[in-house]
Batch of 2 targets.
Target 1
Amino acid sequence: MALQVFTAVTGAAWESELVGALDREDHGVTVVRRCVDVAELLAAATTGTGQAALLSAELRRLDGSAVARLHAAGVAVVGLVEPGDTRAADRLRQLGVVRVLPADAEPEAIARALREAVTGVPVAGHDVADPRAALPALGLPPEAGAGPAGGGRVVAVWGPTGAPGRTTVAVGLADEAARLDVPTLLVDADVYGGVVAQVLGLLDESPGVAAAARQAAAGTLDRAALARLAWSVSPQLRVLTGLARADRWPELRPRAVGVVLEEARRLAALTVVDCAFSLEEDEELSFDTAAPRRNGATLTVLESADEVLCVSGADPVALQRTVRALAELRDALPEVEPIVVVNQVRRGPVPGDARQEIATALGRFTGREVRAFLPADRKATDAALATGRTLAEVAPHSALRTGLRALAAELGGVPAPAGRRARRGR
Ligand SMILES: Nc1ncnc2c1ncn2[C@@H]1O[C@H](COP(=O)(O)OP(=O)(O)OP(=O)(O)O)[C@@H](O)[C@H]1O
Ligand SMILES: [Mg+2]
């Protein structure tokens, strides 16, 4: 039986010729409906009368959620772009359309792509030249890592409720990595209200992360666009600011956040993401995949990250929260192997040798080792907060800074700086 196909290729001069050719020749394809817009295509998809859709990049209101809904309805998608329009091809791929062909491709090739899309044959190479090749030189650093897929690493900084110091650790790690000459992007992805801009003394009027997510959803985010949305705080440090207002969380759709991180991997060798604490899913809402979930963005970050740091406080209450948070993480994302960092270590709340006691307790209740202990140093953190500067600037010799620098070297894949010799100014 011929493959039943919907088309939505309005606005293109070649539409009727193509539809005619597909229908006429014996390509094993029957065009069952020619849709004029996205709404009609989505309505057609729900009728169950077609197995694939052929759509053009120019289709108005085409976004990631429309593509996702087509897939959810069991309709495979093939995209068409004006010959040579690599930007449009890139945009379609970002929206989740993996098969993209130039509109002047032979009808036989288009029919084959439709059949392969339905049977799920993996895509080998791209039908249109890699759009990254057309990226204008915008004073961007060379692509991080090897290969066009973007080799930058993503480190998520997460942890339980109770302000264990996620933001302090995320900002410190990003700043130290940048000082060690690792091109770094710090992303504030806290869906309960981000404070990275404030901590760094940036007068931020519009959250960069929301704009990036918006462009990602529209399929227009690329490496250059992401660079434009980020502040350049120092030669090697860019910052994508967060949602200052907690009620704007629906702007961080998980899918879009995933795309932002993919582009981040092309922009920076190291991306450090300051995450919110909660992983809870709203049971009422989660059965409906279309409903936004507040913690979906956090889950996406943790799932896509190369490393997940779990920042813990160092007193008994904070440790108990960490035990619970790690159990939640294991339930939600069993494949993630978090790196435990204990912050705010001090004498007092834990009797005896605090490090030893904490390591033993966490080992017993979570089965995890502590990778790093960071001391409590209120004087240093207060000095940083008071001036909107980083620990390297206000407390360069503090043990807290030294600990963060060593961890940054490890995560950034550079040799650990030895003593003061390696200190760098801005
Ligand atoms: N090692 C430390 N020594 C002293 N104070 C610290 C240390 N780490 C963090 N703090 C302070 O603790 C407070 C909370 O830290 P931070 O904002 O980094 O936590 P958080 O986990 O990001 O919290 P939130 O849940 O609000 O996002 C801040 O005032 C910060 O300066
Ligand atoms: Mg925080």
Target 2
Amino acid sequence: MTNNTIIEGVDYGPLAALIGTWEGNKGMDRSPEPDGEEKNPYFETILFEAIGDVTNAESQTLAAVRYHQVVSRQSDQKVFHNETGYWMWDSNTNTLMHSLTIPRGVCVLAGGIYNASNTSPITLEVKAKLGDENWGIIQSPFMLKNARTVSFEHKISIEGDTLTYSESVGLEIYGKDFDHTDTNTLNRSN
Ligand code: HEM
């Protein structure tokens, strides 16, 4: 890992710290069950790739990082969460964006302002809320009715080759509110 945030002429700002393949086996998932919750220890791989920049309306430039996260249960070694999307960085406004999709029929566009004064660790923090016109959540009719995602918060901290994240997904499911959480610490393998 280098302190240089410019890759092939594109300035990725704090997102440069993400680039690489990360692995971690200390994950803990807390997810909803009809009679309460289940806790799933997990391991995972996340690949972050620098993919260049885009311009919007000839006035906004975003540096983009594409990622793919594959998560497996420790108990049976099977994949039980698969997620893909982008992290984007607008250096003019210090804005971070995180778009994600999961194969349950749920998409999120979360955003936040990067605090550049605190770089050790580098901390990326984004949020979205159902109904928010800026940073929102889209989901299928089935999910809206039966397993509604109402909020999303994601915080990643990176120090050298160690990445820690915590994620909180607010759900309305089985007639109650549930805080679906996931945390892990990963190391960069290349
Ligand atoms: C490491 C990340 C994650 C893991 C390991 C994980 C795992 C799980 C598990 C085990 C369930 C219960 C499934 C079942 O009972 O059949 C679940 C439910 C759910 N998750 Fe996640 N999840 C993760 C992240 C997310 C994210 C980022 C979102 C959305 C933004 C999300 C949305 C949901 C929803 C809507 C449900 C309810 C569906 C149901 O339980 O039937 N999850 N998740």
